[in-house]
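Exercise 4. Each item below gives a protein and its sequence. For each, produce the structure-token representation.

Item: Outer membrane protein beta-barrel domain-containing protein (Brachyspira aalborgi).
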Amino acid sequence: MKRISLIIALIFIIAFAKESFAVSSWQFGLNIPIGASFGFYKVRFSSDAPQDYKDTYAKRDTSVGFDSGLTVQAGYFVGDGDKGISLLLDLGYSHDTFAIKGSSAKESYTFESMQIGILPKFHKGNYAVGFGIGVKVPFQLTHSASVGNSSTIRKYASYMSEEKLL
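Answer:
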């Protein structure tokens, strides 16, 4: 079954390979971003903050998080010779992790989100430059914390329905 699916996928890719380049008509794209996230943790405290609060949060630093996703783009290209413009609809899924570590604690926040936006692209010859505009709609937040030998994991449902702790 896997081989049949692979063969069908290859036939689909070959059949639409011409559509992948800047030729007048429909355009389709698939992106699978995979990477790491590095944060910057800079905290300034007011003079009213208690010293134990300052000691706890001043020692924190960021850690490496993991990001991945899948976006599908579909749109239409209009061109004249070697110049043209296309407008694509961009739909996708995003998994983003942000991590913070301290002297005895480590926390991470994981967001599962849907992306929706538009992507205008400008074509000149064999090159294209696009500027994406859109929003990420979070569906779920997972907060993981470990302090010493104990750890907790909390999952929060989408804010779009009612706020729930899973």
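Check: The helical segments are 2-15, 51-58.
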